[in-house]
């Protein structure tokens, strides 16, 4: 998808943060507003459409943090106390008889009238079953107060939160059986290039297997997208028009390949006939060319075709775009300052993302950072960022982005 | 699930690494040997059963890394060269006519007889369409040699590799349409405790909502397990026996709750009748009690019931166990040395895992690290490790484990 008519050579390279800023603004302007109510079991990986507000206090009542004895601390004056009831978790206790204590277990509700729990290790049970305490007592000891974690009415998850196991567990703890989530983003994935053949088929002269389709379809599914796999586009204008015309109900057309090929860009021609496209030359490596545009009003992102470039431009630019389309505010992956375990030869004018691993606290890079390879990415645990104009040496601090932050 | 008869109080606490070592040895001894062939689209999240060996060179033939002109470097002697063919990606070129050059595009095969590619920016096309070059040429320039990434016969993914989008893309690039993967681990999830109520139902006195079931079921699914959701076990021995007897074809029984309650441990009783259980007191916080045993030959892991303890003991101990059952060798999450953005009050005798976020390069911890809460975990981006006997202060180095490393 090259923007054939543009004088691209004259443009300065677009810094990564500016490209991201533009993409996020475009995503914000095309936020998916539709939402749906789904049971918790179906909400994993989705984005919360409306804030989750606690409907009850957590814990719902004061409870014991220990196995032991509940009492009013002032009732212990050195005289052994009778055990007047026994409270397991799940039981509703009677009010505590004054001057007595209650056997209580972790998580069980504190009886009315008690203000502390002494752990069983600090209790002496007398032969007559009355109990003495060996350590000083005070109000609040080993008690988890009602509402300690959450008060009814508090917002516990903001709209725009991505829902993983932890968030779903939290929703369950508040009694929610269903959540309102943003509709899934529907992404059509297209590969371009007459050289591409699907795995399992024989490879002819000059052909290579299509790896980006599998990479992107699996990745998009992990990100909670609904994928329309539109296969490989033939290098033919009429067929390209036909295939594009068949794409209905999609929120994004994501293509790979074609952007760095100067001619025979049928996808670009067909898209431009009914929309607009612009080519961004990014200060990023692997990567560089990225196309953004619209086709019949549907946003289009065109990624470079070689797999390592696809990986980096999808992970660092398209993933945040897709999350923001669903209203996710925090789209920045975690990154860490780590010492470089390598010497970078010379400063460049593009930001490099090197496939790297952590070994003994240092970032090591894959020997061959050629942009055509996925093997380096399978070996890698993360990406090391080498900024424009810098050439870090061994021991210098570099930023490390774990792949797990990008893939999920 | 308490091991009622054991004199647990006398035992020293078991350090986390020793507990992990034991669990991994148990997992190794119970490795799942069954495997199955699945198409790439179904292999995401699975574990490779047999090494993936390249069946072809990658790239399959030398190709151009640039849009430009292919030639034999010695043919450029200052006399403009005729362009004798034009090679797009996907085309099989004819051998290069000696003394000429070929127009070539990125990814297209190098014609026999050519040994370099000069990028179009360094080429002057004359009015007669012949081409001059403005920079010195050398053999290999801008050529990606055949087999540069991978040679046929090389192992590109070891058995035991977890398959994510990158690994599947790599397999696709080698033409594989299906992979041999380890059978999914079948995990029965049980919650114990009469106080537990499922979300969506009304909450009675003394009751709380069951959050661990949702936390664990979603998490196990993300880890590629087949989950048998066995619901909440009633505090009744006969019913417990009956429910356990109904669990068929499972590789692990995972229960939560009950381990720190000293009495009415019907699950423990029922399990011990037809197996064995031992209680490990771990030097971990939140956490501490963990049960491991067997029931009719099926391994059993019992996690503590409060959600933050469940999260930590599942993430740090059960997750690696489950991965190792499938033959995954590298089960250690990435962790990073980061400066503490907090003062820890005093050294403890258990290793603490604090729910933390990274802010401006420092790890901040959630204000309430009470073990009962999931809200802290939803706020957190990772866990900060505070080792036994240490009390890091602001600026001291602590280990940070991103949650994304544990959740996927």
Short description:
The structure is a homodimer of 408-residue chains. Chain A is α/β, with parallel strands linked by helices and 408 residues long.
> Which residues of chain A sit in consecutive blocks of at least 5 with pLDDT less than 50?
1-8
- Taking the alpha carbons of the first and last residues of chain A, their distance comes to 28 Å
Structural class, from secondary structure content of chain A? alpha/beta
Under the CATH scheme, which architecture of the largest domain in chain A would be assigned? 3-Layer(aba) Sandwich
The Rg value of chain A, from CA coordinates, equals 30 Å
Q: Count structural domains of chain A.
A: 4
The CATH homologous superfamily of the largest domain in chain A is named MoaB/Mog-like domain
> Can you count the beta strands of chain A?
26
Strand content of chain A: 25-35%
Q: Biggest interface between protein chains, with counts per chain?
A: A-B, 106 and 106 residues
- Order of neighbouring strands in the sheet with most strands of chain A: 16-13-17-21-20-18
The residue fraction in helices of chain A comes out at: 10-25%
Number of helices of chain A: 8
Oligomer: homodimer
- The first-level CATH class of the largest domain in chain A is given as Alpha Beta
What overall geometry of chain A do the principal axes of the alpha carbons give?
elongated
Which sheet architecture does the biggest sheet of chain A show? Answer: 6 strands, mixed
**How is the CATH topology of the largest domain in chain A named?**
Molybdenum Cofactor Biosythetic Enzyme, Chain A
Residue-averaged pLDDT of chain A, rounded? 92
């Amino acid at each position: 998808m090259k923007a054939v008519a543009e004088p691209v050579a004259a443009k300065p390279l677009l810094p990564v943060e500016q490209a991201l800023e533009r993409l996020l603004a475009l995503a914000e302007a095309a936020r998916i507003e539709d939402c749906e109510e789904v049971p918790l079991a179906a909400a994993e990986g989705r984005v919360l459409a409306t804030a989750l507000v606690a409907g009850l206090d957590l814990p719902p009542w004061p409870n014991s943090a220990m196995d032991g004895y509940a009492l009013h601390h002032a009732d212990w004056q050195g005289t052994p106390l009778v055990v007047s009831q026994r409270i397991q978790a799940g039981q509703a206790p009677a009010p505590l008889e004054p001057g007595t204590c209650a056997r209580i277990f972790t998580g069980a509700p504190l009886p009315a009238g008690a203000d502390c729990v002494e752990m069983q290790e600090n209790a002496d049970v007398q032969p007559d079953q009355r109990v003495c305490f060996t350590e000083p007592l005070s109000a609040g000891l080993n008690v988890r107060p009602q509402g300690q974690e959450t008060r009814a009415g508090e917002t516990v998850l903001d709209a725009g939160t991505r829902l993983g196991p932890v968030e779903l567990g939290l929703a369950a703890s508040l009694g929610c059986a269903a959540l309102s989530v943003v509709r899934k983003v529907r992404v059509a994935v297209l590969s371009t290039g007459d050289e591409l053949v699907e795995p399992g088929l024989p490879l002819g002269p000059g052909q290579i297997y299509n790896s980006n389709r599998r990479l992107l379809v699996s990745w998009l599914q992990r990100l909670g997208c609904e994928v329309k796999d539109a296969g490989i586009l033939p290098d033919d204008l009429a067929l390209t028009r036909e295939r594009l015309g068949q794409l209905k109900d999609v929120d994004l057309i994501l293509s790979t390949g074609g952007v760095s090929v100067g001619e025979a860009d049928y996808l670009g021609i067909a898209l431009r006939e009914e929309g607009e496209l612009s080519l961004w030359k990014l200060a990023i490596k692997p990567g560089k060319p990225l196309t953004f545009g619209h086709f019949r009003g549907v946003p289009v992102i065109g990624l470079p075709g070689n797999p390592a470039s696809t990986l980096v431009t999808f992970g660092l630019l398209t993933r945040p775009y897709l999350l923001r389309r669903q209203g996710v505010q925090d789209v920045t992956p975690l990154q860490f300052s780590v010492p470089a375990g390598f010497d970078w030869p010379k400063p460049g004018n593009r930001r490099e993302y090197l496939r790297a691993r952590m070994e003994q606290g240092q970032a090591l890079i894959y020997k061959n950072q050629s942009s055509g390879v996925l093997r380096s990415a399978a070996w890698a645990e993360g990406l090391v960022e080498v900024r424009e104009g810098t050439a870090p040496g061994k021991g210098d601090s570099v930023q490390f982005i774990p792949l797990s932050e990008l893939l999920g």
